Amino acid sequence: MTELTFAILKYGFLALLWVFVWLAVRSLRKDIETFSPKPSHSRRRRERAARRALPQTAVPTTGVRGDPSATAGRSAGPEGPTLLVVIDGPLAGSSVPLGDQPITLGRSASNMMVLDDEFVSSHHARVYRDPASGRWAIEDLGSTNGTVVNGQRITTPTLLPAEVPVRIGATTFELR
């Protein structure tokens, strides 16, 4: 084997090693972004654009938990929300129709919506129609990492108006 052949093999192997390291780091970065409980860059960009597009007289989206005035100016139809829509996370774009049965969310296969995420408990939360008010509510089922409604972690069953974001692990959904 000549010295030139040996040098070419040596530098070729070194280049392949760096390509492997770059691919491994890129893969880890994507996994961390996917499973991170904070909102993605694209979701934050969409939210900023939506806030800029709102007229100055619009009602802010923050409010007291369970307060229907928190979503004043927004409508979900005359009869209320009919879908639970995932807006961010691994299941983005999927939806579940709201019916008479409660919707359970968690990592276990026995849930109506299975969230394959290490930050989600096996039986994390449930969305159900509140018998007293007839409106939709969400309840955290004693999860480790909690359920966040409109930026606030909940500890008690909370009324869930339409278009209020709910975050469980890396998944964000809302009622529409």
Automatic annotation (TrEMBL):
Residues annotated as transmembrane: 6-25
Biased composition (Basic residues): 40-51
Keyword terms, alphabetized: Membrane, Phosphoprotein, Transmembrane, Transmembrane helix
InterPro entries linked: Cell_Proc_Reg/RNA_Proc, FHA_dom, SMAD_FHA_dom_sf
Residue numbers spanned by region Disordered: 34-79
Family matches, as SMART domains: FHA
Protein name, entry field: FHA domain-containing protein
Protein species of origin: Bifidobacterium favimelis
Domain FHA: 103-154
Lineage: superkingdom: Bacteria
